[in-house]
Every structure is written in C-alpha cells, then in structure tokens.
Design brief:
The chain is built from 17 helices and no strands. By secondary structure, it is mostly helical. It folds into two domains: 2-128, no CATH class; 130-328, MetI-like fold (Orthogonal Bundle). 29% of the residues are buried. InterPro entries: MetI-like, MetI-like_sf. One of its GO terms (cellular component) is plasma membrane. The chain crosses the membrane at residues 9-30, 139-160, 172-198, 228-251, 288-313, 333-359.
Length: 370
C-alpha cells in the first residue's frame, strides 16, 4: 500500500501541472484581461467599480489621467479600449501586473511561488489571496458540511430501504420523488424557499441573508448556535435538493448486487435473521463504494455548485469570491484558488483509495498499476 501511495503522490505533480497549464493558456486567450479591466476603470466604462489596484488609477501609476488623451502607440493598440491612451501609461500597467514578461516566464514564476504556497495578492483588492480564502472559508465549509451530512444521512437509509423493497410501491414513488428533486435546479428551489418562507410572499420564518444575525456576537453561546442554524436552514435545503438522487440510487444498486450473491443465500440458509444478513453481511460490502466516495463528495459539495446559492442568500463564500475573480480577471485569486483546490481534490482522490482499503482490507492496490 505504501508503494501505491508514493506512486499516486508522484502522479499528482504532472497532473496538477497539466491542469494549471491548460487553464493558464485558456485564460490568457480570453478577452478582457486585468489591463483592459483597469483601462475601463480609468475611462469610467467599467461595469464593476468596486475593484482596486495597488495605488490609484490616476495617481500612484505616475500618469495623470488628463494625459491619457494622447495618441497611443502599438502597446496601447494591443488592448481593447486602449486607443488614444498614452503608451507610457499602458507600459506602466503591464509592469505593475507583470505583463511586461514573456508568457512562459510569467507561468513558471507563478508556479514557483505556488509550490511554496505563496499565492500573492489580489489585483483589485488590498488583500492577500490566502487571507481572502480564509475569510470566505467559513461560509463554504458550513454549506459543505451540512449538505454532505444531510445527503448521506438520508440517502443511505433510503437506498437500503429501496433495495429491500425493490419493485414495490415504496420503491416506485420514492424514485419519483428523488428524480424530481434532482431535476429541480438548486438556485430555482432557493428562490421558491425565499418566496414561501423568507418573507417573499407568504411566511416570514427564516432570515433572507447572511450566515448570522448582526447582533450575533452579543448573544449567549446557545443563542449563537441557534441563530447560526436558523440562517443555514434555507441555503442548505436549496443545496441538498438535487443531491439525493445519485447517492440513493448508488446505495440501492450496491445493495441489490450484494443481495443476489451466494454468500447471502448461504447466510439465509443458516437461519440468520434478515436484519442480521442485511446489516451484518451485506452492509459492509455494499457500503464500500459509497463510503470510499465520501472524501471526494465532500470536496465537490464544499467548493462547487454553491455560487448561485451564495448570491441568492447573500453569503460571502468561496463561490462568490471565484465568480467575482473571474468577472474582474483577478488572476492571482483565480489561479491561486484553482491550484489549491485542484491539489486538494487530487489528494482527496488518494484518500478515497485509502478509504477503500480501510473499509475492505482484501483490496490490494500494490498488485495494480496506477
């Protein structure tokens, strides 16, 4: 097992490098980079005006805004909206953003910093990328943990019950329910929850925004916990609505496959109760694929799919941070978070394999190639 883990750890390096190369090249090709974003802010045509650059646009760059009316040269014409701007101003922007260096040099400089987990600072916020991620992490962790727990606590017992009652009315109507839930987009269900339960039209039972109330810090600890849970009800419901179908059907199919095997027939022939056969023999083997997939499922729920939910419920988490970084072409935030969470995902895949062995020691990865 140790040799397999070492091989997988070594494989993470080229995999991560390849992912970063592909994404870096795609982002460089896309129009509207950081310099064009800054030009739009200088000219007052930017859609989003809350961003910032190190130093003001018209002062710390060393170029007066009034001078931008001069005819630009070739350096200005490389960027959309830069016609007529002073080439010196454009070159200063290129130097400040690091675009005065060749593309390969910029990439390898970035990766050398990322190896040391130095993700730099945001282009348009006066914050380090690490500080931004740490600040937004509690929201995403809250959504991820509660969503994963609820999905697993509901889907596994439901999948077992469906397997035991395969083809019966219970199996049919529960399948219809989970499929309908899977078909409903989470953000659409979130809007419905707001309209019905958050004062949108009918009931005003739950808060509309935020992770906690404004006076949360002044509340006793038990009221803080209740206030936190009160705020999490609607966002978590919106997140879990589509999460039951896949895990429920996976659990059901795993149990059905195991129930049909010879060792189950033998156990029943020995006179063991159905409950003992189901939970004493079938459960361990059937749960192998479900339990082993838990680390990857948690990471997937934690860092993906929550952006619209965060926007709708005004939750300032990682999903919203990534969306704003993509819109503003904030490369340090985009690539820094991509590197970290891709690395985390690759490590979680390895943890999933190790979990397989912990659940069933009969599995031997050493006899297999990576």
């Amino acid at each position: 097992m140790l040799a397999y883990i070492i091989r997988r750890l070594l494989l993470i390096v080229p995999t991560l490098f390849g992912i970063m190369v592909v994404n870096f090249l795609i982002v460089q090709i896309a129009p509207g980079g950081p310099i064009e974003q800054m030009i739009a802010r200088v000219q007052g045509t930017a859609v989003e005006a809350t961003a910032r650059i190190s130093g003001s646009a018209s002062g710390d760059t060393g170029v007066n805004v009034q001078q931008h009316g001069q005819t630009g040269g070739d350096s200005g014409n490389r960027y959309r909206g830069a016609q007529g701007l002073d080439p010196v101003f454009i070159k200063q922007l290129e130097k400040e953003f690091g675009f005065d260096k060749p593309l390969p040099e910029r990439f390898f400089h970035m990766m050398s910093n990322y190896v040391m987990f130095d993700f730099g600072s945001s282009y348009f916020r006066d914050r380090r990328v690490v500080d931004l991620v740490i600040e937004k992490m509690p929201v995403s962790i809250s959504l991820g943990i509660w969503t994963t727990l609820i999905v697993y606590l509901v889907s596994i017992p439901l999948g077992i019950a469906k397997a035991v009652r395969d083809g019966q009315p219970f199996d049919v109507w529960t399948s219809g329910v989970v499929i309908v839930g899977y078909a409903i987009p989470g953000f659409l269900f979130a809007v419905l929850l707001i309209v019905v339960f958050a004062g949108g039209r009918y009931l005003d039972w739950f808060p509309l925004r935020g992770l906690v109330s404004d006076n949360w810090s002044s509340l006793p600890w038990y009221k803080q916990a209740l206030d936190y849970l009160w705020h999490m009800v609607l966002p978590v419901l919106a997140m879990v609505i589509g999460g039951f179908a896949g895990l429920t059907m996976l659990t059901k199919n795993s149990f059905l496959e195991e129930i049909g095997k010879q060792y189950v027939v033998t156990a029943r022939a020995k006179g063991l109760s159905e409950r003992h056969v189901l939970y004493g023999h079938v459960f361990r083997n059937a749960m192998l694929i479900v339990i082993a997939g838990f680390p990857g499922a948690f990471i997937g729920i934690l860092f993906t799919g929550a952006m619209l939910i965060e926007v709708i419920f005004s939750l300032d988490g990682l999903g919203l941070l990534g969306f704003e970084a993509a819109i503003n072409r904030d490369y340090p935030v985009m690539f820094g978070t991509l590197y970290f969470f891709t690395l985390l995902g690759l490590v979680m895949n390895l943890v999933g394999d190790v979990t397989y062995v912990m659940v069933d020691p009969r599995i031997d990865f050493d006899s297999r190639s990576v």
